[in-house]
Amino acid sequence: MNSARMSVARRSSALALGGLIVGALVLVATLTGCAVHPAGSPSTDPASPTDDGTVPPGTTVFDDDVAAVSRLNAQLRDALRAASTAAQADGVEVRINSGWRSTALQERLLRDAVETYGSPAEAARWVATPETSPHVSGDAVDVGPWEAAEWLGRHGAPYGLCQIYINEAWHFELRTEAPTQGCPRMYLDPTEDPRMAPR
Ligand SMILES: [Zn+2]
Predict the structure, then answer these.
(1) Ligand 1 centroid, distance to 151 Cα (angstroms)
(2) Which CA distances in Å does 112 have to 38, 62, 131, 163?
(3) Contact 130, 43 (CB under 8 A)
(4) Which of 77, 81, 103, 186 could join 130 in a cystine, given CB atoms 3.0 to 4.6 angstroms apart?
């Protein structure tokens, strides 16, 4: 790699890291915001506050009563359960910060991201539309804390669990070829992912 390329690579990883921290804060703020219901608010709540894909703190992939977990693709959920059990043996608890999301929740996240990042183009680097989000189809999870994402990044492939985007170290999807071929090359961010192209 020549030095110009290296400095570009360094700059993009610094950018990715900066964006990653901002993105993580926004996500935490957004999810916390969703979970808070002011006392005495009118009875417009759905049957359960987690029906839209909101995830209560401390949720794991074994929490079947949370829609974000129960509505995941079953193969992805099974892989996550196996990996979580192995991580536990290494002293790492894998928590689910986001899994399946309703269209309404995804729209809310996108609206918030446009507000935060100032433009739909910049928001697209962090939040997909309901039509393209693998969360809405039940095919993606965001894990935490940091050490759990790190553990899964290092040990996920044998379970078929792969990090997809360089700028989202917490976002994992199932890649059935990963146990034999390893995980595919990562995209820098979702805008490089052909699945995210507007339809
Ligand atoms: Zn995600």
Answers:
(1) 17
(2) 19, 29, 17, 24
(3) no
(4) 103
32-88 pLDDT, tens per residue? 333 333 343 444 555 788 999 999 999 999 999 999 999 999 999 999 999 999 999
Q: How far apart are CA 161 and CA 181, in angstroms?
A: 12
- Whole-number Å distance, alpha carbon 39 to ligand 1 midpoint, is 30
Q: How many domains are contained in the chain?
A: 1
Question: How far away, in angstroms, is 141 Cα from ligand 1 center?
Answer: 5
Token pair for residue 176?
């059935």
**pTM for the full predicted model:** 0.76
CA–centroid distance, 100 to ligand 1, in Å, is 10
Task: Decide if 39 is inside a domain.
Answer: no
Q: How far is the CA of 142 from the centre of ligand 1 (A)?
A: 5
Would 40 be classed as within a structural domain? no
